[in-house]
Amino acid sequence: MRVLIAPDKFAGTLTAVEAAAAIEEGWRRRDPEAEVLVAPMADGGPGFIDVLSAVVDGTLLSVTVRGPLGDEVPATVLVAGETAYVETAQACGLHLVEPKQRRPEDATTYGVGQLIAAAVDAGAKRVILGLGGSGTNDAGAGLLAALGATAKGGELSKGAAGLANLTEVDLEPARTRAAGIEFVAASDVENPMLGLRGATNIFGTQKGIADERKPEVDGWLTKFAELAGRKTADAKGAGAAGGLGYALLLLGAERVSGIDLVAELTGLREKAGQVDLVISGEGAFDFQSRDGKVIAGVAKVANEAMRPCVVLAGKVQIGSREMRTMGVESAYSLIDAVGEERAFADPHGSLAAVAERVARTWAR
Questions:
Q1: Which of 133, 190, 274, 332 would you call most buried, defined as having the most Cβ atoms within 10 angstroms of its Cβ?
Q2: Which SS3 state, helix, strand or coil, does residue 353 take?
Q3: 135 plus 11 within the same structural domain
Q4: By three-state DSSP, how is residue 251 classified?
Q5: 344: helix, coil or strand?
Q6: What CATH number is attached to the domain comprising 250?
Q7: Using CA atoms, how far apart are residues 271 and 277, in angstroms rounded to an integer?
Q8: Which one, of 12, 1, 14, lies nearest residue 354 by Cα?
Q9: What pLDDT, in 10s, does the model give residues 65-92?
Q10: Cα 98 to the chain's mean position, in Å?
Q11: CA terminus-to-terminus distance, the chain
Q12: Cα 16 from Cα 245, distance rounded (Å)
């Protein structure tokens, strides 16, 4: 039996690398002779660098940058020749702030600009940024400020609230700093930055923006966009990571699918053609999994290779009809199999136990 294991992270419990190891361990208990290929995945959010550092021949550059609320946080840039990979969540991720301390209207992407500067100073001519998991909603104004952009009437580095009274924005210093650099924004989000489908209204709740605050916050971003470039705010992907996509598009970035980029770098398509079964997984297999997420991308690759794809997840909240539409044959829930308490107390052991059960059904 030949198996390809290509999971996403199980948010809050296991990285993609750890999840893949647990699935392999469980499978081998039932099928020790199996030929197992491993390809941990990411869609641009948390875990992006962890996954790529295992397959890209490069050097990890350690830096310290400003976190979403101003505290210094450690981060890494993966430098491979003249290409650098940046995980923006390391500087502005939601996971960096405790739930009770979240102030999304004040959170900044300034640290992302510092990561870009570090990549450029290291000799990068091409910077690929994974977008996702952000705790910010500042339209990328902080990033631009870190690269030299200035403003009157407000503070670009003070989060969305710093944009409230802007009267003028000068992006030229940032564009000069980034001149000659090719930017690639890797994200699963295609939303524009403003309006009902924009960053604030669609993703603001998960960052802590109250519903009654959304119109005003969206208005702050609108004011910034009118001064910095209104047309770009409507572009596909401008709303990614709280508008971080918008700032990168202002710098001339190309937007690509995060899962497609990682699939290419990890050789997922070639590996899928060499196996009998493809296994993916994530913390919650739900309706959000359909839109540019890891499971959807892995299932698509498996189907193109005419291989069955099964999913292991902490929770399965999608019906069999919907999962088959995605190209997933079956899905298995850790919580249903071992109980919620054990699933969270021992995620590695629980995932391995479920993988062993799956092998009983699928191993030849």
A1: 133
A2: helix
A3: no
A4: coil
A5: helix
A6: 3.90.1510.10
A7: 11
A8: 14
A9: 999 999 999 999 999 999 999 999 999 9
A10: 19
A11: 6
A12: 24
